[in-house]
Design brief:
- Helix 4 packs parallel to helix 5, helix 14 packs across helix 15 and helix 15 packs parallel to helix 16.
- Strand 4, helix 5 and strand 5 form a beta-alpha-beta unit.
- It is flat, with a radius of gyration of 31 Å.
- The protein has five domains: 129 residues, NAD(P)-binding Rossmann-like Domain (Rossmann fold), CATH 3.40.50.720; 161 residues, Succinyl-CoA synthetase domains (Rossmann fold); 149 residues, 3-Layer(aba) Sandwich (Rossmann fold); 69 residues, 2-Layer Sandwich (Dna Ligase, domain 1); 112 residues, ATP-grasp fold, B domain (D-amino Acid Aminotransferase, Chain A, domain 1), CATH 3.30.470.
- The protein is 36% helix and 21% strand.
- It is built from 23 helices and 27 strands.
- The relative contact order is 0.07.
- By secondary structure, the chain is α/β, with parallel strands linked by helices.
- The strands form five sheets. Strands 7-6-9-8-10-11-12 form a seven-stranded mixed beta sheet, with helices on both faces.
Length: 677
């Protein structure tokens, strides 16, 4: 566990490079820190306006122990300022300015000097290239953005790659009425990185939920470990940048994206995070998850009580589109509701109350207590007849399951509803879409926690193999045979006569393929001939392969039709070993329909992968087609992952296509890549 108390709860602070000139960084930071305890000690080498000339003088004169130094000096002087601060007992430092590695040239030298100073002194450094951090409940605002003075204490922590995004998200959370417990912009992350702050937040009792913004990841396993630890005790909502190619701009900011956007999102979700697409979803998710957290579950069923049918339809449509069911209430529940509402309203779920009346709290209680309901959403337009937060509080339902309130109305009425909802301890969101997104976040969190469970078994045992030498298709399939995969009957042939004998032995239709470990994509060079049934067709295929310098060919019985998948394991440059399952064959590149796990993976998490594909219906007997055994695919994923993890010389294993038929799965093509290949 990383202890960052000296940064986020320092006994005293100091600004090195303080200034009395308005607008200069040293002046702005001195002003920002003025409200924290006795204010910062100010250091300026010229000793202007009563400032201390040296760090030593400032520390000696300070009424409190100085734990945090905010360094507002040029890049060339930063390393020396770090050493002097550490020598006088300072434990942490903030560097907001740039001019380091991102600037190139001499900035690379300044960066190296700062790294050496941090290593030698043990001081903890936040930055460079960040607008700072703030802890509103302590009045600690180490930020040069003036607007942070308006941020109210709250229950959501922001951990952002960018100092700018840290402030943007915090202002949005403020507008949403949840406030901020801690806001941190990592910047260049020369020392303190996102995982350090996530570890700190595990024990921060003021924080109920954490939002994480990522632009680049330097240490994938370390990040995932931190997300796992944190998400096990409080929700983590993640926003990952990099869906589109903005690499040139990213390099000019904090660094190029180091791995696939899809991979980063997938493994974060596996680690327990709720992954969102934009800042609006992030704020709605954080607001919802500040309330009662749902129990781990593969899926949640929602109950919806709405005062207006139109908005109720919007919410219902969004929930169904997100895979969240609105189950029909039991007959007993509807009978009870029927005594409280006129028969013209819909009472099965959603419950359309029309304009709420005196029995409204009992309606909420009845829906919440229905055995099919896991989460309750309550929506209405504000009006004087009833206050939704008051009704929820009177119903007493928030202690039994997660409850979210959605409202629309004039600004002043929404503000009043927020105040009442906060007093009742129930999250409030504005608008039908926001309520649906909030419920979706609860469902995503419940599913992530469920899939992390290891109660159903551990990952596969280590599988060690003789990985040396070249890996052609035949050898790759021999390995799959040993691992329990089904593969087609085949023969390795060095001569035309051997190929003819194989055709006779195998019978029926065969494929004739180039066998060469150096050729990964045989179809691109005419290295695959399909549907061969006669000696004449075999001769033509054999001659064509000889013309592309084939020394050996593989004659293999062709499989019947089915649904093609791709299954692979490889070493991601950031996150290490991962597994990929997707729609296979030529559809792999066209549709990019895939799902990803970091390795090792539990059987429960692996078995959930097929359902995450857009083409999942094809694997469930679509139009009398084959049905995938998820237990078997989970076993195959785990065992392939074990081969990769326990044999460092293996870089990648890919099976494409892995054909699903009524008889099960068959590996029709396989590639194994080792470091020496």
């Amino acid at each position: 566990m990383t202890d960052l108390d000296s940064l986020f709860n320092p006994a005293g602070t100091m600004v090195v490079g303080a200034s009395s000139t308005p607008g200069k960084l040293g002046a702005v930071m001195a002003s920002s820190l003025a409200t924290y305890r006795s204010g910062p000690a100010l250091v300026n080498s010229r000793g202007i306006d009563g400032m201390h000339r040296s760090i030593a003088d400032a520390v000696a004169a300070a009424p409190d122990t100085i734990d945090l130094a905010v360094l507002c000096v040029p890049a060339a002087a930063t390393a020396q300022a770090i050493r002097e601060s550490a020598a006088h007992g300072v434990k942490s430092a903030l560097v907001c300015s740039g001019g380091f590695a991102e600037a190139g040239g001499e900035g690379l030298d300044f960066d190296a000097q700062v790294r050496s100073a941090v290593t030698e002194t043990g001081i903890r450094l936040l930055g460079p290239n960040t607008s700072g951090f703030f802890v509103p409940r302590l009045g600690l605002r180490a930020s040069f953005v003036p607007g942070v003075t308006s941020l109210d204490p709250g229950s959501v922590a922001v951990v952002a790659a960018s100092g700018g995004i840290n402030h943007v998200l915090s202002f949005h959370l403020q507008s949403a009425g949840v406030g901020v417990s801690l806001g941190v912009g990592i910047g260049a992350g020369l020392d303190i990185t996102a995982p350090d702050v996530l570890d700190y937040l595990v024990g921060d009792t003021a924080t109920r939920a954490v939002v994480l913004h990522l632009e680049t990841v330097s240490d994938g396993p370390r990040l995932l470990d931190a997300v796992r630890r944190l998400s096990s005790v409080k929700p983590v909502i993640a926003l990952v940048i990099g869906r589109n190619d903005v690499s040139e701009f990213a390099q000019s900011h904090t660094g190029a994206l180091a791995t696939s956007w899809h991979t980063t999102r997938a493994v974060l979700r596996q680690a327990g995070a709720v992954v969102v697409d934009n800042e609006t979803e992030l704020v709605d998710a954080a607001t919802a998850l500040c309330g009662r957290r749902p129990a781990p579950s593969p899926e949640l069923s929602a109950g919806l009580v709405t005062g207006q049918a139109g908005p109720g339809l919007l919410i219902s449509d969004a929930l169904y589109g997100n895979g969240i069911g609105l189950p029909r209430l039991t007959e007993d529940s509807m009978r009870e509701i029927g005594t409280l509402l006129p028969p013209i309203t819909f009472q099965g779920n959603p419950v359309d109350t029309g304009r709420p009346g005196p029995g409204y709290p009992q309606i909420l209680r009845t829906v919440a207590e229905d055995p099919s309901i896991d989460v309750l959403g309550v929506y209405g337009i504000t009006e004087p007849v009833i206050s939704l937060p008051d009704a929820v509080a009177e119903a007493g339902v928030a202690d039994g399951l997660p409850v979210l309130i959605g409202v629309d109305g004039p600004d002043e009425e929404i503000r009043a509803a927020r105040t009442k909802a906060a007093a009742a301890g129930v999250p409030l969101l504005v608008g039908p879409g926001a309520l649906a997104r909030g419920i979706g976040a609860l469902a995503a969190d419940a599913r992530s926690q469920y899939l992390r469970s290891t109660e159903d078994g551990d990952p596969a045992e280590p599988v060690r193999i003789d990985a040396g030498g070249p890996w052609d298709e035949a050898r790759s399939k021999d390995l799959l045979d040993d691992l329990g995969f089904a593969t087609p009957d085949r023969r390795v042939c060095s001569t035309r006569a051997e190929a003819h004998a194989a055709l006779t032995e195998l019978g029926g239709r065969v494929a004739v393929k180039l066998l060469d470990a150096a050729v990964l994509h045989k179809t691109e060079i005419g290295g695959v001939h399909l549907g061969i049934t006669s000696p004449e067709e075999l001769d033509a295929a054999f001659d064509a392969l000889v013309r592309i310098n084939a020394r050996q060919v593989l004659v293999e019985r062709m499989a019947d039709g089915g649904v093609d998948l791709v299954l692979g394991v490889r070493r991601d440059p950031v996150f290490g070993p991962i597994a990929v399952l997707g729609l296979g064959g030529i559809a792999t590149e066209v549709f990019a329909d895939s799902t990803i796990r970091s390795l090792p993976v539990t059987p429960r998490s692996a078995a959930a992968m097929p359902d995450e594909l857009a083409a999942a219906a094809l694997l469930r007997g679509f139009r009398s087609g084959p049905t995938l055994d998820v237990t078997e695919i989970a076993r195959l994923i785990s065992v392939l992952g074990s081969v990769l993890e326990t044999n460092p010389v293996i870089s990648e294993i890919e099976i494409n296509p892995l054909r699903l038929q009524d008889t099960g799965l068959t590996a029709l093509d396989a590639v194994v890549i080792s470091e020496e290949n």
